[in-house]
């Protein structure tokens, strides 16, 4: 099988990724779950572990200074990559952890532990969508239960989609938080973030953006979009697992009670109280995943060198091919925007008469890696009348030939299982 990448990315880009380089029979279409890492990211982690490994922000030794420089340099580059200030980027264990940091901080504020502007009361409302990943749903469920607030949601249609008018219809004078995904990990729908942020500001509500599926694929300027908080993860953007990012406007982060407490996040501690540093350090208690953070810095360097406008153009082309491949196969139902509509380069689908897990196994036997299941979005699947779907997703190293291989194999699934009779 010969792989050639569409313009504008260079044709030999796959050589940068040891997980797929030199493996012409491996078709990797699961980047929305976990992306492959380029050699530069692997090398950055290994080099730091070999040469510069030491505690950060602890002590005054040369080793500590060098490690701290690497740690903070990564923060500076990640912040620039997403249009944030350095004080607006907080290291977390994952995007899920980042979203929990916001929800738990609001819970503490509601309990009287500071940050009054974040306190929720009975009758206040938290607004999400029916399409949310569990990581951007369950924290808000629990916050509502703790505070007496009401959890409301924007319903989706038969394709799993919602509009800004649908969201506007759910807004009220009691809405305090609007949490939603920039790009749905199931449908590929791209939300109108700036318009929603403007609505939220008019309503006096905070916006919390799940940017996991947008940070690796779209040019992202969080400051210009106007959101208050955002979260994304390293392992979906060519970087390591075990590290995520919480973005927050600096003034808000300085007031939000820290969800994790302990060493390195404080100024003064007595036996009865503690005072915390300004952001971002107030949220970074304990030993941080420094090696992974260095790797994430290298990952954004790699993406920035490609140019996110180029990445978007490449993946726009692949998205069109991917949708055409899916809808060309009889008996396959596409979830999300119809052909021709804007979307990310991922496609979830249901094969009539064949369980998604069987579809995934059939494809895997032919060397095609996809994701099966509910993709941590059970309410969305339930609304669609499904328990699970199969999802194929692209990244910078994905090629037209890989999508053609998916199309050809997908065309054999129903016949293999006798579902076309």
Automatic annotation (TrEMBL):
Q: Which GO terms describe its molecular function?
A: cysteine desulfurase activity; pyridoxal phosphate binding
Q: Which SUPFAM superfamilies match?
A: PLP-dependent transferases
Catalytic activity field:
(sulfur carrier)-H + L-cysteine = (sulfur carrier)-SH + L-alanine
Q: Which domain of life is it from?
A: Bacteria
Q: Does the record bear Ubl conjugation in its keywords? A: no
GO annotation terms (biological process): cysteine metabolic process
Transmembrane regions:
none
Keywords on this record?
Answer: Pyridoxal phosphate, Transferase
According to its UniProt record, which protein family does this protein belong to?
Belongs to the class-V pyridoxal-phosphate-dependent aminotransferase family. Csd subfamily.
What function does this protein fulfil?
Answer: Catalyzes the removal of elemental sulfur and selenium atoms from L-cysteine, L-cystine, L-selenocysteine, and L-selenocystine to produce L-alanine.
Q: What is this protein called?
A: Cysteine desulfurase
Source organism of the structure: Microbacterium oryzae
